[in-house]
Amino acid sequence: MSELEKPFEIPEHWDWSTFDEIGEWTGGGTPSKQKTSYWEGDIPWVSPKDMKRLEIDDTQDHVTETALEDSATNRVPSSSLLFVTRSGILERKLPTALATVPVTINQDLKALTLSEGVDSRFLLYYSRAAERSILQQCSKHGTTVASLESGRLYRFPIPLPSLSEQRRIVAKIEELFS
Description:
With 178 residues, this protein is of the alpha+beta class. The chain has helices at 65-70, 120-129, 131-138, 150-154, 163-177; strands at 15-18, 23-27, 43-46, 55-56, 61-63, 74-76, 81-84, 96-99, 103-105, 109-114, 157-160. The strands form 3 sheets. A 5-stranded mixed β-sheet has the order 2-10-7-8-4, covered by helices on one side. Strands 5-3-9-6 form a 4-stranded mixed β-sheet. A two-stranded antiparallel ribbon has the order 1-11. The relative contact order is 0.23.
């Protein structure tokens, strides 16, 4: 288990896990802006400017299959959780969103594709609720651009109730939001 501080008390029948124990992380990259043929596609390419919503179903920029093959950007499946990990916004906010379609991501983001037994919306809402703790415990210090230390983010504590309980919590949150 993580050496990082747990941000909340949880019921006894829940378990603690970490981000890296409940999914697989993917980093991103930016195809060359010099090759316009990379930017004439229909594959959503997520950058921090797109991370203003809870759900990402489209983006301002789109790339081609060739850009995906020739660069460090990676395609992540729908239901992946997206985190901004390098940007000035991290001085005050941790943008997180749920990809509702397959997307590619730039180098300022990380994507977490979840394992079986974890509800993506539950983790999205938890990440939003734990924003202050994540920023306090995972921010890098002494860098020119605000960023998160990936290893600490990966080890950040996650409360993990049963899948049915996760879904019940999500339903209640969404009922309250409506």
